[in-house]
Write a structure and sequence with these properties.
It is built from three helices and six strands; from the N terminus they run βααβββββα.
Amino acid sequence: MPGTTIYRTELSRDWIDYNDHLRDAYYGVIFSTATDALMDHHLGLDPEYRARTRCTLYSLESHIHWLREVKFGVTVEVDAHVLAYDSKRLHLALDLRVAGSSTVAAAAEYMLLHYRQGENAGAASFPPDVLAKIEALKAADGGVEWAGPRSRALTLAKR
């Protein structure tokens, strides 16, 4: 099931390997940039928020699954799915597909932490308005479980 499309980009020729495929490292670049777009445009964790609060998202762990080849000359889109969240963490799934296709070419899972930088650095609770946006993004999937592959479980363990 498609999630909320959060990012779209044309592939750069520099990202293509000797097989005319998207080089594996650039899937990570695309997913990372898509996560920035999620922060800036969907969760309200934009540059102004980060400057005002000194809070941002840190990636704690990620897994990428390469499912189908992506060749030069296409535009790709990334869809987001919220798998779980708590007061400080966000378990996010991302699907990469060629624009106009419903077939997922790569999938990623991220465990993200809302983190306060600076003098009093440490994990910080999401503000209520950000939690509401996370919940709305999760609800956008209509309660349908993410169909992406999982090579090993990422969970929000109770602490």
